[in-house]
Amino acid sequence: MRKILLLALVGLGAQLVDGSLGMAYGVTSTTLLLAVGVHAAAASATVHLAEIGTTLASGAAHWRFGNIDTKVVARIGIPGAIGAFAGATFLSSLSTDAAAPIMSLILLTLGSYLLVRFTTFGLPQDNVDKPLRKRFLGPLGLLAGFVDATGGGGWGPIGTPAILASGRLEPRKVIGSIDTSEFLVAVAASLGFLVGIGAENINFGWVTALLIGGVVAAPVAAWLVRKVPPRVLGSAVGGMIVLTNSRTLLHSDWFDAAVTVRYGCYTVVCAVWAAAVAHSIRQHLMEQRRQPVAIGSDSEPRSS
After folding, report:
1. Residue 13 sits in which domain range?
2. How many helices (H) does the chain have, and how many strands (E)?
3. Its pTM surpasses 0.90
4. Based on C-alpha coordinates, what's the Rg of the chain?
5. What digits encode the pLDDT tens for the residues 220-260?
6. Stretch (H or E) spanning 191
7. Count of domains observed in the chain
8. CA 67 to chain CA centroid, nearest Å
9. Where in the chain does DSSP place strands (E)?
10. I need a labelling partner for 189 at 20 to 30 A (CA). Which of 25, 77, 82, 136 fits?
């Protein structure tokens, strides 16, 4: 019973982060399942079955708050589903641990770019709301779906920074669209795992616990992403990507860093991340203060 309650709390916390930042539900939940000795394929299957419900609830909440671009959902979600089904059947018979450091290095680069871009310049306005092309979203969805199924998470960490980096969609709609399209990915991955490992290797009690926690958090996360300023949200997403993938790289065979080195790096990353978010908040507040002045100066000539 204690394990079920813990899983429900993990599902709640993971969905709160995922729904507001567009990533981390699968990564957080899968990490816990692997820590208690669950096979990689069974852990990923458990998380994706739970995500069928959490992503449906999250998508409905994001739709209610106007955080979705339906064209983006379709253009990235369908290829993502194809990649997820292929990844699930592949993982059922083969481990992909060797690819983790390479993918983490790519994500670390993207996260660093986002952290600098949003902290320094904010959201680029000249490209926002220009359409995202199928030739960009299709391959992105295929790759993100495959990695998501094989790694127990990755749809958000790959899809969110790539679309954010394009500057063509405001952060809240990027997150809402990624969360909504993940429903298709979760369904396809779950079908792939049921074919590959069978239902007997999946603990449906754990699935239910993760699902309940995630469904409870979904509307709160959708409301939160609407309220957080885009500049702050971009800095927060970038920092999370950098921290998460730094940890993966430092634990990998590439580095196998000592404990003191790892925690020293985490401290530096967290300090830079906190400073970046604080700077973004200050810049946002300064921009808000300028707006009433501009309105007042425009209105004075009319009254004279």
Report:
1. 2-113+124-228
2. 11, 0
3. no
4. 20
5. 766 766 677 767 877 887 787 788 778 878 877 777 788 89
6. helix 171-196
7. 1
8. 15
9. none
10. 136
